Amino acid sequence: MANVAECISKLVRSGAITRAIGDEALSMFLRSKAEYAKQMGPAGADAAAALEAAKKLREAAANKQLAIAAGVKTWRNSSGSLAMLAAVRRALSRVSNVRFTPKSGHWNTPSTLS
User: Fold this and answer.
1) Which of 7, 15, 68, 107 has its CA 20 to 30 A from that of 26?
2) What are the pLDDT digits (tens) for 40-62?
């Protein structure tokens, strides 16, 4: 049976995870293994450290996904606002010849256009 370091190395070589994630996983595993080795035998320490490293990586991945989703939601909300502004500008432009001047940032009515 392959040890955790070999498994992480295989995942990096196959492209399933990046080198940075592999290094982070191996680092977490080795730190946890050193802590667990004080309390239990080598096999138990290996298993407990592998489980803890996997949980920490899963949590980090979930946090990254949440951050990405929040960014997408923010982008969608802002682009929705821009679309709404464009629709309002078009609607007001068709009514009473009101025009928006982007350079000045003002709405111009027919009396101010002359």
Assistant:
1) 68
2) 998 888 889 988 888 888 888 78
Side chain identity, residue 7: C
Instruction: At 5, list the tokens.
Output: 């370091």
pLDDT at 57: 80
Q: Which amino acid is at 5?
A: A
What's at 114, amino acid-wise? S
Q: CB 49: neighbour CB atoms within 10 A?
A: 21
Calpha distance 50→56 (Å, rounded) = 10
| Structure-token pair, residue 106 | 């003002």
Phi-psi map region of 2: left, alpha, beta (phi>0 left; psi -120 to 50 alpha) = beta
pLDDT band at 1 (very low <50, low <70, confident <90, very high): very low
Total number of domains constituting the chain: 1
Domain that holds residue 100: 4-113
Residue that the structure tokens 């994630």 belong to: 21
